[in-house]
């Protein structure tokens, strides 16, 4: 037995006193501090299963703590109540785990099942525990739909629907409950996407949340006032900021789609960062091998190769960082645009500016990186590699200039289109880079034309982006109550169904399956809406 670990040492009073002191110290720590500490320690010294468990425990704490911020616009929702927070945290963690481990048809089925289960649980909680009368035309459930449709008298429409008997009345009530449930739990799935963003960034979220929790715990001792307000007002925590921004998803259909777009854009940006870190760990070995020999004996080609390896990692990391910065700024501009779109005045201050050039600079870094990937397989050092060696420091310097010259705010009139185009361009850039690396590493002499032999994904992505972008415009066009416009949304849904069927023919699974589901839902929704319009229901 090793010295100092014998039975006599274990019987020492000092050991028991020390152990009791450590246990008492841990017991006195607030859970906000204890959970990220456990996550960091578990990830550092424990196996992968322990790291995963402690990370998801941290996410559960984050979702539970910040749930009220997600529903800021729904003042009457009991988002501060413990039961509601537990439901939100459990559903959000389930969504994150679903995105982490499921794929293809299983992911689609899992999303549907979780949507139904979460909506049912929330509606049951509001009805049975909080005493909501869900079918009261003047009740709080109706107020949720009224917030999303401020230009319609939702209460009057539902009063007429609830008064109908037979199958039509049952269908009206079911549609109302489905709409209410989806609106209440849709932020759950966005929170799940946010969790995936931070899974790629471990241990950054643990450190950020730990810093937030320590400041929140210490600040009441330094200042006078209620600690809860100080906890929620700490502005530097990124998890808090992203979850707070999800409140825009519950204020209108436009807000729901645009918040989803921005969150997806931030998630893709995190993917770029993850790829840069992974690539950096892989090229570190060859780079150190080059430096392991006599440095003075390295030729120009070796130095160019080493310089370009560093540049490739830096460029991809810059693309991810710039995209993430861009989407954070769009989150700050989004409430101002939604105020203009909805005719409200909820946002404070002036809107922040979009980055100069928008997505042009990170796209340029991706194209330059792809060009370098094509140049590497050539024998010797190609002109492309020399060009990349000169290009990448200039692009990073230009990025620094853009970051310091994006002060003047732009008009908000078409911010939704900027967001949609930015997401599409970012997503296509991922496809382009992946396709480039595939062709460049396939062996033989890579051909530029081979990149576009399988260009079906950009077409599919274009359709998926355009559909939710145009839907709010069609809905607003129809709401103007001009003769001949009452069927605009019907024709739009039927057109979406037709385009989804055509797009599914060139898509691959699992997107093909999801497009077919969309086509079926659009046909059903279009025909049902046509029946409602026809009979004046």
From TrEMBL:
<feature type="transmembrane region" description="Helical">
    <location>
        <begin position="386"/>
        <end position="404"/>
    </location>
</feature>
<feature type="transmembrane region" description="Helical">
    <location>
        <begin position="50"/>
        <end position="71"/>
    </location>
</feature>
<feature type="transmembrane region" description="Helical">
    <location>
        <begin position="306"/>
        <end position="328"/>
    </location>
</feature>
<feature type="transmembrane region" description="Helical">
    <location>
        <begin position="255"/>
        <end position="276"/>
    </location>
</feature>
<feature type="transmembrane region" description="Helical">
    <location>
        <begin position="107"/>
        <end position="126"/>
    </location>
</feature>
<feature type="transmembrane region" description="Helical">
    <location>
        <begin position="174"/>
        <end position="202"/>
    </location>
</feature>
<protein>
    <submittedName>
        <fullName>Uncharacterized protein</fullName>
    </submittedName>
</protein>
<feature type="transmembrane region" description="Helical">
    <location>
        <begin position="83"/>
        <end position="101"/>
    </location>
</feature>
<feature type="transmembrane region" description="Helical">
    <location>
        <begin position="356"/>
        <end position="374"/>
    </location>
</feature>
<keyword id="KW-1133">Transmembrane helix</keyword>
<feature type="transmembrane region" description="Helical">
    <location>
        <begin position="416"/>
        <end position="434"/>
    </location>
</feature>
<keyword id="KW-0812">Transmembrane</keyword>
<feature type="transmembrane region" description="Helical">
    <location>
        <begin position="454"/>
        <end position="474"/>
    </location>
</feature>
<keyword id="KW-0472">Membrane</keyword>
<feature type="transmembrane region" description="Helical">
    <location>
        <begin position="283"/>
        <end position="300"/>
    </location>
</feature>
<feature type="transmembrane region" description="Helical">
    <location>
        <begin position="486"/>
        <end position="507"/>
    </location>
</feature>
<feature type="transmembrane region" description="Helical">
    <location>
        <begin position="513"/>
        <end position="532"/>
    </location>
</feature>
